[in-house]
Amino acid sequence: GLSIVHPTWAKSRPDDPEDSHAGWRFRDPKDPPVQSREGHGSFDCDGCIPDPHNGAKFIRDLYELAGDTDGKYTVPVLWDLKTKTIVSNESIEIFKMINKEFNSIAKNPDLDLYPDDLAKDIDGVLEWVYPYINNGVYRCGFAQTQEAYETAFDSLFEHLDKAEDILSKQRYLLGDKFTIADIRLYMTLIRFDPVYVVYFKTNCKRIDEYPNLWAFVRELYQMPDIRAVTNIKHIKTHYFTSHPNLNKFAIIPKGNPDYLKNLEVPHGRDKQFK
User: Fold this and answer.
1) Spatial separation of the C-alpha atoms in residues 259 and 255, rounded to whole Å
2) CA distance linking residue 219 with residue 53, whole number of Å
3) Intervals of the chain under pLDDT 50
4) What global pTM score does this model have?
C-alpha cells in the first residue's frame, strides 16, 4: 500500500534533548494540525496516509527497523512487507523497478516509461537533468558562499535553456516518446515558480517565462495520473515549514493565486508536434 508523510519536518525523537534529528513523520488526515519544529504555524494533515503495517511514526522508524541508523532518513522508500526492510530509497531506481518489476499486478502493464531501446538515451538525459536541474535548485538554495550559489545558479539556468531548446523542437526530451526523463524534469519544474524562485533564490526567470517548458509542465500536469499525485499545497508546506535556517517562522508565501488555474490552460503540444 501507499503511505504519504506529513510535509512539515519534526524532531523524530522529541523526548531526547541530545537527538537533534528532524525529518518526515506519518500522520492521519484526522489528526490535529502540527507546528514546525520551532513551534511556529499550524499545518493540517490533509493528504497524509499513515503507515498501516509497522505503525511507524517517523520515516526514521522504518530505517531503524531495517537496521539503518546512519542518520540520513530520506524519502521515497520502497518497503518490503515480508522481510520488513528497505528495498530502495533512490527515486530513479524505484521508478525503474515499478516500471517493469510489478507488471504482473499492474493496472497498465503495457505502459513502459523506460523502454530497453531508449534506456541508454534516457540515462544520458538524466546525466544532466539530475545534477544541474533537479539537484541544481538545492545547490542554489543551500549554498553557503556567494561563489557556490552563483556557480549553481548559472549552471541551472544554462540547462533550463538547454531543456527549453530541446522542447522547442520535439514534444518530449526523447522525441515523441514520453519517458521517465520527462517526469524527472517535471518534478523540479512544477515546484519552480511556487517555491524555488523565492526560497532558493533561483530568480533569473520563472518557468512560465519559458514558452516550451511552461507548455510542457502544463501537458504533464493535465495527465490525470500525474495531476492526482501533484499536491502543490504539500509542496509549499514542506519547503517553507521544514528549514528554520531558511524560514524560521515557517511563513508560507501566498504566491500567484491563479497558479493552479494556469496549469489547466490548454498546452497545445499535441497539435504542435503531430
Assistant:
1) 8
2) 36
3) none
4) 0.96
